[in-house]
Amino acid sequence: MTDDPSARDLRRGIEAMFFAYRGFTQDPDRILHERGYGRAHHRALHFVDRSPGTTVNNLLAILGVTKQSLNRVLRALIEDGLVESRVGEKDKRERHLWLTGDGRALQLELNEVQSARVRAAFASAGPEAVAGFQTVLEQMMDEELHDHFRRLSDLPGA
Amino acid sequence: MTDDPSARDLRRGIEAMFFAYRGFTQDPDRILHERGYGRAHHRALHFVDRSPGTTVNNLLAILGVTKQSLNRVLRALIEDGLVESRVGEKDKRERHLWLTGDGRALQLELNEVQSARVRAAFASAGPEAVAGFQTVLEQMMDEELHDHFRRLSDLPGA
DNA sequence: CTTGGAATGTCAACAAGGCTGACGTATTAT
DNA sequence: ATAATACGTCAGCCTTGTTGACATTCCAAG
After folding, report:
1. Chain B, 99-128: which have a CB under 8 Å from a chain A CB?
2. Of A15, B75, B83, B140, which has the highest C-beta tally within 10 A?
């Protein structure tokens, strides 16, 4: 609120985001490609894993894509037995989503390679840098997405 | 090198990258869409602006896409008069790239909206957080991309 | 000096994964 | 009853990645 970053700092931050995001997605992308999946499948697996039993609508809000786009991805994951879809008990219009054993296995594998890189970066940068990293990223989110982020952060689990 | 981030920290970092990147690209994306361009056009404009007279090959190394993919984007920008391509004097196989006045104008506009968000995030997070943000992102890059990043950082200019 | 290989860039065609629009079907809410 | 909600699906479009084939240019070995 009180500081005045230089144009040079801003440019470096922008370029760092671009290059770092490439590294961030690279390792999972390789595994996904071997299995005939893409980044969209990874995102679906990740957030279903994070909120087991979530509905399609909730997933749409988090992912920020159209239902047609999400549906294409979910259909593939369900057909391949990685995701299970059950009609809601209370509201039968809703479909609730869970990972199967196979789905959890793939999600774990993807998470492992992605975490490995982040872990290395965090360890080498140190805890204070990590705190700053986290703060800046949160400030960069849209408010609505920041809400989703906080909700996920408050969830129980590892 | 010495710390041991928790699985929870890693998960939060991963999700923060995902949500923050959405915010990061959102404002330029809107302008680009109005003009019938996409993110790829933004990247080309940005890095041509950063290294005026650069060759297609150099751009390929930075962007990490195939030359066919880049070529489609460059062709559109050249046809629309935003980028100028000149055959190399020394090596006539090479094409050297510059932004035209119109190209620089669009790049400035895109940079302005993107910088505005980063500036706000930086200002509200404070300079120490920004330093940590930068450190972690650099550690997340692939070595080759980190080299490109450093080279760009050392360039003269605003 | 010629010729073959490497480097550079272009064109064509295809796939993933976004998008909009329209429609069908349960189910729930008013 | 009627309207709204949640979800699925079909059709078609766009951007942006991919591979394959090809033309041009440069350079170095013979």
Report:
1. 111, 114-115, 117-128
2. B140
Task: Name the residue closest to D5, CA to C1'.
Answer: A93
SS3 (DSSP) at B151? helix
Whether the Cβ atoms of residue A58 and residue A50 lie closer than 8 Å to each other: no
Instruction: Tell me the pLDDT band of B133, cut-offs 50, 70 and 90.
Output: very high
A111: Cβ–Cβ under 8 A, 6 or more apart, which residues? A46, B14
Which residues in chain A are closer than 8 Å to B124, comparing Cβ atoms?
1, 139
Burial A141-154 (b: 16+ CB within 10 A, else e): bbeebbebbeebee
Q: With contact defined as beta carbons under 8 Å apart, do B118 and B110 qualify?
A: no
Average pLDDT, chain B: 94
pTM of the model: 0.93
Smallest Cα distance from B90 to chain A, Å? 30
Q: Where are the beta strands (DSSP E) in B26-101?
A: 54-55, 83-87, 95-99
The whole-angstrom separation of Cα B147 and Cα A58 is 40
Q: What is the pLDDT of residues A43-66, one digit of tens each?
A: 999 999 999 999 999 999 999 999
The strand pairing partners of A87, in sequence order, are A95
